Amino acid sequence: MSATVWIAVGGLCLATAVIKAFGPVVFGGRSLPPALGRIIPLLAPALLAALVITETFGGDRGSLVIDARAGGVAVAGIAIARRAPLPVVVLLAAGATAALRAL
Amino acid sequence: MTHTPAAAIADGEFRGTGDGLPAAEGLPARDGLAAGARAAIPYGMASLLLGFSFGVLARPVMGPVPAIVMSVVVFAGSAQFAALAVLSAGGGAVAAVVAGILLNLRFVPMGIAIAPSLRHGALGRALSGQALVDASWALANRGDGRFDTTFLLGSTLAQYPAWVLGTVLGAVAGGVIGNPATLGLDAIFPAFFLGLLVAELRRPGGRTAGAVGAAIALSLTPLAPAGVPIIAAALAASLGLRR
User: Would you call A69 helix, strand, or coil by DSSP?
Assistant: First the structure.
């Protein structure tokens, strides 16, 4: 088990470094087509919305589930709308999720 | 690492972080770093909690030392959770790394996005890319296709120690608290991303891109391995071509 764990740690370290370097190395140092300047600003809302979905509704083996996390994220949404600071937002989300699980 | 975003300022598009925080306009690199670090403090506090839950979950599966080393050398939360899920299900090292890679693939479009804002040579750019994490990337997004890469580095420097410290605390003390799900710690990740998303929805076209990205992720989650729905959602950004 120990060897498996260390190989996983080393492998993921190398792979992450390569992935994070890929865009800057391959696409840096030259100007990109202007159309990309219109696409790039919208990458953030697209990717972050997808992350919210997968982290809220993602279950085991690709299933979609509605569980206590959804309630926690809904509470987070309300807190964000009321301009609560992020640490408060995430603590409220965790607290609401824990409370729903304890019911 | 001393790139100052003069061109972005000249474009008149240089904006704050969407949180009402001041942008590091035309400041020396050290001030840009400090501004990025300040803007990232709330995300660093969330990283502390996320790192804590990773440490708690990883301890019985990997052992405390490999869990801490992983946070030190990988520093990619969602990929680490994905690799951990494979290991705790009895999967092998290769499967764990592949799961982590799939979740990390979103750093490819993110890296391409910051590439035009990087001025140094290939090795320097490769090193700059190591500073990519979700919150820093989103906070450094100036909305005109440019990124303040000094600000990005500062944001990451504020989050990295929090992530590592959280993991250490979770890995050491984790035995006491049991399953972090009972504390609702698994809701921190989506709440964290929601906080980042809301600022992005204020950009022109942001709402549509977010809605389409969410729809892509929802429809692909049952069909594709974890991580793929997220990168596929990047296609929603091509809506920017309509304008």
Answer: helix
Angle formed at CA B29 by CA B28 and CA B32, multiple of 5 degrees: 95
Secondary structure (DSSP) of A41-103 = HHHHHHHHHHHHHHHHHB-GGG-B---HHHHHHHHHHHHHHTT--HHHHHHHHHHHHHHHHH-
Three-state DSSP class for residue B141: strand
How does DSSP classify residue A58? Answer: B
Q: What digits encode the pLDDT tens for the residues A39-62?
A: 888 998 999 999 999 999 998 877
Question: Nearest CA of chain B to the CA of A82: how many Å?
Answer: 12
The verdict on B65 touching A (C-beta cutoff 8 Å) is no
> What's the CA gap between B201 and B181, in Å, rounded?
29
Cβ–Cβ below 8 Å for B184 and A72: yes
ipTM: 0.90
Instruction: Please list every residue in chain A whose beta carbon sits closer than 8 Å to the beta carbon of residue B74.
Output: 9, 12-13, 16
Chain centroid to CA B54: how far? 15
Select from A20, A86, A99 the Cβ nearest to the Cβ of B46. A86
Is the pTM for the entire model greater than 0.90? no
Query: Scanning every residue of chain B, which has its alpha carbon at the shortest distance from the alpha carbon of A30?
Result: B116
